[in-house]
Amino acid sequence: MRLDELDRWLSDFLDLPATSGIDASVNGVQVGDRAADVTRVAFAVDASLEAFRRAVAWKAGLLVVHHGIFWGAPLRLVGSLFERVHFLMENNLALYAAHLPLDVHVEVGNNAGLAAQIGLTELAPFGLHKGVKIGLKGMLPEPVPLEEIVSRLSARQGETTHTLPFGQGLIRSVGLVAGNAFWAATQATDEGLDLFITGEPSHEIYHHCLEQRIHVIFAGHYHSESYGVQALAWRLSRETGVVTTYLDVPTGL
Fold this sequence. Notes:
alpha/beta, six-stranded mixed β-sheet, Udp-n-acetylmuramoylalanyl-d-glutamate--2,6- Diaminopimelate Ligase, Chain: A, domain 1, 253 residues, five-stranded mixed β-sheet, elongated, 10 helices
């Protein structure tokens, strides 16, 4: 497929316009020749030089990431940004970014992946951000202890999680927003949820969660946002026949 065809397929499937008003990321093709033919597409969480090198070694023509290199405001092409763009162009590797569109997608989104991993049902939007609910909430079929949810999350790739075990008793209702979404903890307590899950730990919400008696799991920013690119890689390959792979470049954070 040509890059412009892949761009169209990805942008339509992910519905980029739906979050364009609230997303600082420049979603879509960030670097690349739209007329280029692409037969192999790599996927990664972050647009890092390490991911670029692995993509080139795998002979990818396109790398799709969750965290791209352009975020709205004009940036000077100097330092590490220059090195990344130079590497992409020198190796004919196109770059496509999908930030919030890959968080909120109901099929391949990061939040959908997290919800499926822990077995949530009765899913509904959660986590109001700039007028749009970008996360999910739901119910567990049976009440379980906090340790069981941690085990379900860690079982996927052995990621380290951190907890604030401040709730009472077993867990049935859960709200989650992947990435760095500590701000949604107050929404979780306002809605009377038993557990809140996000990626990055935050000192800011510690006392609020302690006083409001809610369990919190910090699943890791990288871990919580690695579901979407993997699911999208599988879906793109199934729908178009393009060969895909996932490049695991964990940060441990």
